[in-house]
Structure formats: structure tokens, C-alpha cells
Design goal:
The complex is a heterodimer of chains A (81) and B (231). Chain A has 81 residues and is mostly helical. Chain A has helices spanning 7-15, 24-39, 44-47, 51-57, 59-80. Chain A has five helices and no strands. The radius of gyration of chain A is 14 Å and the shape is globular. With 231 residues, chain B is an all-alpha fold. The chains are: A mainly alpha (81), B mainly alpha (231). Chains A and B meet through helix 1, helix 2, helix 3, helix 4 and helix 5 of A and helix 1, helix 3, helix 5, helix 6 and helix 7 of B.
């Protein structure tokens, strides 16, 4: 089930973001705040520092972050249509 | 709270100018809390509505990840979504006092649904698979579509990566890096197999990556700049 990643993506997966980042537990604790900040047009990386680096380095947390953001977006579009 | 490099998260937060989301609860969030903390009849009705809300999210997330469940029939998938919604409901109710109003209440509860569904799908998809302990293939093998210069760089990087992985990492770090970063084993699956947590494995991966970066630097490999921004 190895994913098809290009060389740059594979290297990034191996060496990580190379920056201070949240732990997975803190990522989950702050995920709703981060996503709501994104959703409302705030600078989410100021609201929750170190989150972006973690999302670059952790595929599972990144997948859940994107899913939550997309779900809220679709829900909002469903309500407005 | 701490970052993966051991720096205190709260301390680190104080280093930057914070622009907090409003800590005042919006009317909908306040109504949810009131209902879930209300009298038994009101609470039961609120829990029923909460479960329905979470089930919508788990079904949505399962649908999004359905390619990983090709062998699972529709009834099994729906059961999986129901179980994830049950688990998310229990998690929300047990952590209700942790909700600090930094987001809308619905955003806060949806993250539990997304998490529980995602973990369940990953674990189901890998249920009958062995977790490989050696790379299925080493990345950065020479590839016929590359130009001579790019191919030479790829060969040098591949050699440096293998050297770094074999010499700079502990056996445990090597196993975790190979599983997560080369073989793409989901972290939840590996955590379950090893009897540990996602956070513990990610800390090991973080430390392994740091050592690997140093090893590559010592071999003269110039690493790409860290990407900025969010996904």
C-alpha cells in the first residue's frame, strides 16, 4: 500500500518539516480552533503556532485536518444552497 | 503540552502575538452545552441529536476513505460508521468539560467523529496485512525517465539516505521510520500492532528525522527548504 509519491514528497516524508511542531495530542487538542480560524479567514498559523509544521510532517493528522475542513465547507455550502 | 522537540507549547505560544478566536460562546454552542448538561430528558434528547450529527460526519468520512475498504460490503461499512459515531459520542461526552469554547461546539465534536472514523478505516484496511519491517523498495532508485544530472543526484541521495538510516538511527528509530515514512504504514495501525500510541510513534519518527537530517548534512546533502503555510 505504499503510496505513489514523487521524489520530493518521499524525501519530505522521510526528513519531516525540520521545524518545531506540535505533538499529535496537541494537534488534536487544537484542531478545532485551527480549522475554525481557517474557516473564518483568520491567520490560523498565528492562532495555533506550530500546527502547520505538524500537518506537514504527520500524514494522519493532515488527513484528518483536511477532512474536517472539507466537511465544514460542504456543510456550510449545503446550508446556504 | 509540549512540542515534539520538547519545547513547552504554552511557553512557545507566549512567544508570538496571539490572535485568539473569541472565547465567548455563540448561541448554538451554548445551547448544545446546556442541553448536554441538562435534566435527564433534555440530556437524552441532546445526546440523541449529538449522535445523529456525529453519524453524519462518520458516514461522510467513510465515504471519503472508501477506496481503502474495497473488500467491505455496504452493510459492514455502515456498521463501521455507526461504531465510529458511537465511539465519538462517548468521547465527546467524557471530554465535555474540556471544551473551552475556542471553536464552535459543532467543530469541536466533528473532530472526534473524523478521528474515530479515520482510525477505524485505516485499521480495517490493514487488518489482514503484515506490517513490513524492511522497505518494499528504497526510494530514490535511479529511474530511466531522469536526466543524467538528476539521476546522479538521485543516486547520491539514495546512498546518503541508506547510510544515514543504517548508521545514525537506533534499531527502533529505523523500524519506525521505514514503516511510517517509506512503507506508508498508517501510524494508527503501527501503534495498534506495537501496543503504543500515535503520539509515542510520532515522537520517535520526529527524533529519527532529526538524526537523519544531520546525517544527510554530514554527507554533504543539501536539503530542500522547509515548506511554509498550511495545506
Amino acid at each position: 500500500m505504499t503510496q505513489v509519491l514523487d521524489r520530493r514528497e518521499r524525501l519530505a516524508r522521510m526528513i519531516g518539516p525540520g521545524a518545531s511542531e506540535l505533538s499529535c495530542a496537541d494537534c488534536f487538542a487544537e484542531l478545532d480552533r485551527y480549522v475554525d480560524a481557517q474557516f473564518s479567514g483568520q491567520d490560523a498559523d498565528i492562532v495555533v503556532p506550530f500546527m502547520a509544521a505538524h500537518l506537514l510532517g504527520c500524514p494522519a493528522c493532515a488527513e484528518e485536518h483536511q477532512a474536517l475542513l472539507d466537511f465544514l465547507q460542504e456543510s456550510a455550502e449545503g446550508q446556504s444552497s | 503540552m509540549s512540542t515534539t522537540d520538547g519545547r513547552g507549547y504554552l511557553t512557545a505560544r507566549a512567544d508570538v502575538e496571539l490572535s485568539e478566536v473569541s472565547t465567548g460562546l455563540d448561541a448554538e454552542s451554548a445551547a448544545w452545552l446546556e442541553g448536554l448538561r441538562g435534566e435527564p430528558a433534555q440530556r437524552n434528547e441532546s445526546v440523541r441529536r449529538l449522535h445523529a450529527l456525529l453519524l453524519r460526519a462518520t458516514r461522510w468520512q467513510l465515504h471519503r476513505m472508501q477506496a481503502q475498504l474495497a473488500r467491505m460490503d455496504l452493510a459492514e461499512r455502515d456498521t463501521l460508521a455507526e461504531q465510529a459515531a458511537d465511539d465519538a459520542t462517548v468521547a465527546v461526552l467524557s471530554k465535555l468539560d474540556d471544551y473551552a469554547g475556542h471553536s464552535r461546539f459543532t467543530t469541536w465534536v466533528f473532530k472526534f467523529a473524523i478521528l474515530h472514523m479515520s482510525v477505524a478505516v485505516r485499521r480495517s484496511a490493514w487488518r489482514h496485512r503484515e506490517v513490513p519491517t524492511e522497505p518494499a523498495s528504497w526510494p530514490y532508485q535511479a529511474d530511466s525517465s531522469s536526466g543524467p544530472e538528476e539521476e546522479a543526484e538521485g543516486v547520491a541521495l539514495a546512498r546518503a539516505l541508506r547510510t544515514g538510516i543504517d548508521t545514525a538511527l537506533t534499531p527502533h528509530q529505523r523500524d519506525i521510520l521505514i514503516a511510517l515514512a517509506i512503507n506508508d504504514v498508517p501510524v494508527d495501525v503501527l501503534a495498534e500492532r506495537l501496543g503504543t500510541t500515535r503520539g509515542a510513534l510520532y515522537k520517535t519518527l520526529h527524533d529519527a528525522r532529526a538524526r537523519l537530517r544531520v546525517a544527510l548534512h554530514e554527507q554533504g546533502i543539501e536539503l530542500p527548504a522547509t515548506r511554509k503555510g498550511t495545506r
